[in-house]
Design goal:
- The chain has 207 residues and is mainly α.
- It contains ten helices and three strands.
- Helix 2 crosses helix 3, helix 5 packs across helix 6 and helix 7 packs parallel to helix 8.
């Protein structure tokens, strides 16, 4: 079947379909292209058809990994997201990563990281937890303050973070003597018994 020429009206239709999430394979079948790669290649010359989708990433993790010296591809691999998502987060934060060799860029990146860390500590102190180094730690401490000793999965559900982030923060809080393991939670069904956590830190007046 003969491939249709990309007229302006067809480009407008393709742009609307792409931004609505219609895959190239479906559009190629409708337009008579035997191979959807041919259509995608022809359309790539038109900027209005390029759809970039960014996954929201944990900015706190991006700042921490950048401070540890990881490059943007390495950060993307560690967080399980695309390089473009990390690039967007770095642009919004004004953050530089490993591979930026300009001394001015390195100094600016370090200043952004210090400001971010300071902002996290200020926010944690306003919640009544100046002992916390990150806002996520303060939220975990507040959950344990309100709920008493609870398991890791319940902490995760209440704070709304990924379970690996919660486990990492709980280990850090335990190392600084702010929380302690209080035995194991009863096993439910075939699930694995998990640690129960108890708060040791004292809450200060919020504000």
């Amino acid at each position: 079947m003969t491939c249709r020429r990309l007229t302006q009206s067809l480009l407008t239709r393709l742009a609307a379909a792409r931004h609505a999430g219609v895959p190239w394979k479906t559009l190629a079948a409708e337009l008579g292209y035997a191979d959807w790669h041919t259509l995608a290649g022809a359309a790539s010359r038109h900027r209005e058809l390029v759809v970039r989708r960014y996954r929201r990433v944990n900015r706190e993790a991006v700042v921490r990994l950048a401070a540890a010296g990881l490059t943007r591809p390495a950060i993307a691999k560690r967080l399980g997201c695309s390089r473009s998502s990390v690039d967007k987060a770095c642009r919004q934060l004004g953050l530089t990563t490993a591979g930026c060799h300009s001394p001015a860029n390195r100094l600016r990146g370090r200043a952004v990281q210090r400001d971010w860390r300071t902002g996290q500590r200020i926010a944690a102190a306003r919640m009544g937890w100046p002992q916390a180094e990150w806002l996520s730690e303060a939220k975990i401490l507040q959950v344990l303050y309100d709920a008493g000793p609870i398991g890791t999965s319940e902490v995760t559900r209440r704070v709304g973070y990924q379970v690996n982030t919660v486990r990492y923060r709980l280990r850090g809080l335990m190392a600084r003597g702010l929380v302690v393991r209080d035995g194991r939670c009863p096993r439910v069904g075939e699930g694995t018994a998990e640690w129960r956590w108890r708060l040791l830190a004292e809450r200060w007046a919020a504000g």
